[in-house]
C-alpha cells in the first residue's frame, strides 16, 4: 500500500484563520487540535454566511478578503490534489458571522425562529392545510414532508412530535402549536394508553396499525432490537410529549398518567436487589427474566437507567416541584455516576449491563462499542442535576467527559461528532475505530451542543465555549435542509447530507421532531440565560384550578440556583404582579378558565 494519498478527493476543513495572503490567494487554517493547513483560494471559491431555516442564501463571495481576519472560525470545502505533498483548493467557504467574533446562532432569536420552522414543517407534513386530525398521522415522513404508504402510528413518534410542538409554544406563544400538542396528547391517551386497574399502573402500546376506519393495536415493539418485548425506553418516551404539554397547561390527567407509568417502572422494571431498571419485560408476565426475552433478559442499559431524566422526569419536576421526582432524579444520577464510568479500560462510559452490573460487551449490535452521544448526554444531564442538588461526583464526571470526548468522539478535522465507535483500540491502532461508518447523526450533535453549552454556562471555561460554538457551527451549517425544510438525519463526515434508506426520511421510528426541538428550546435557554446574559420570554396556558394553590412554576430548565429571576409577567396580555421573582413562580388569578401567561426571565448578573 502506498505511504501517501495519491488520488484526489473532496473534503471539509473546519478551522481558525492564522494567516491570509491576499496576493498569493493562500489561506492558513488551524484545526481545533492545532494542525495547520494551507488552502488555495486561487480558483475563486464561493462564500456564504451561515443561515437559519427559512432564510435566503446570503452571498459573501465579494467580501472574502476582508472577512478572513486572524482568529475567525469557518468551514472550507474543497478538493485535495496529490501534488507537491498535497494541495487543497477551496470551492466553498462558510462564515459563521459577519464579524470575526460573531456567531449567528448566538443571536437571541436564532433558535426560536428555528423551532418555529420545524413546527411549521411537521404540522404541514402531518396535517396539511386541514384540521389537526391525528388519525392522519404517520410515523414515516419523506424528505420533503410527504407521507409513505406505511400506516403505522408509533406511540413514541407521536409523543416526540407533541414534545416539539409544546416546546415551540413555550418559546413562541403560538396557539397553533399548542393545539397540535394537546390533540396529540389526547390521541395518545385514547388510543395508546392502557389503564391496568388491578395493578394500578398505566402502560403504553408500541403503536397502532391504521387501515381505513379500523385500527390494530401493536402491543409489543416492532423494532428489531426489541421485537416482541416491552422495552423501557418506549414507555419512557411515551411520556415525553405529554409532560412537556403538562408544563404549559397543568392538565392533571397528564400528571396522573405519568405517576401511573412510574408505578409501572417501579413494579415491573425496577430491580430491588441490585438496583437500577431493566431494559425489557415480556408482554405476558411482565417479567424481566423470562426466557422469551432472549439476550434482553435481565439486562440494564443507558436507556432504562438514564433516559428518564431528559425525556420526562426533569420536566415533571420543573412543572411540580414535587420532592418525589427530585428523589427519583437523584437516584438516577447516583446510579449513573456509580455504574457507568469505566475509565480504567476506556475513555467512554459503559452503557450495557447484566443484572449484577457486570459489563455486557457482546449484546446485539452494540458489542463493546460506545455511542458517542450517550457520553455527552450524561455530561449534559449531570450538570442539570447538579443545579438541583450539587454533588462533587456529578460535576467531576461531567467535566471529565467534557475534557475527554473531543479527542476521541469529535471530528477535529471537519467539525461535528461521530456516531458509534469501538470502546477499546486493538493492537497498534491509534484511533478508536468506527463501528460501521463515519457519518454524523443529528441527535448526537444535539448532545454535544447542550453538554458544552451548559458546562460553559455553569462552570465556565474557554474550552467549553469553544466546543459549544464549534458544535453549533457544524450543525447549523450542514444539518439544516434549506430546500425541503427541517433537518437531515445524517450527514457524511464532510457535512454532505446522506440520503439513503431510512436515513433519507424526516419521520421514522428514530426521528420525529423531538431532538431537533429539544435542541432549539434548550440552546435558546442556555445561550441567552446562561452564556450571553439576555432576557427571554416563555408562554404558558394553564387553568388555575388545575394547579395546587394556583401556583405556576416557570423555570425553563434545571438552572443554577439564583441565576435567573422573573422580570415581568403578563396574563391575557395585561401586566400582572403576583409572582415570586426568585422562586420563579406565578400565583395565578382565582378564575375558572384558562389564562395566557407570558413570563420574562432575566439573568442575574454574576
Q: Can you put this structure into words, describing what you see?
A:
A hairpin with a 2-residue loop joins strand 22 and strand 23 (574-576). Helices cover 35% and strands 19% of the residues. The protein contains 15 helices and 26 strands. By secondary structure, the chain is of the alpha+beta class.
- Find the CATH topology of the largest domain: Glycosyltransferase
Structural class computed from helices and strand pairing = alpha+beta
Overall 3D shape: globular
The CATH architecture term of the largest domain is Alpha/alpha barrel
- CA gyration radius, whole angstroms: 24 Å
List the helices and strands and how they pair.
Elements lengths: L8 E13 L4 E5 L5 E5 L5 E4 L14 H4 L5 E9 L5 E9 L14 H18 L24 E3 H18 L2 H18 E4 L4 E4 L2 E5 L2 E5 L11 E2 H6 L2 H10 L2 H18 L10 E2 L17 E3 H5 L1 H13 L2 H17 L12 E3 L14 E3 H17 L3 H18 L10 E3 L17 E2 H18 L2 H17 L11 E2 L22 H18 L4 E5 L10 E3 L10 E8 L2 E3 L2 E2 L4 E3 L9 E7 L3
Parallel strand pairs: 3-6, 4-6
Antiparallel strand pairs: 1-2, 1-5, 2-3, 5-6, 7-10, 8-9, 10-11, 12-13, 14-15, 16-17, 18-19, 20-26, 21-25, 22-23, 22-26, 24-25
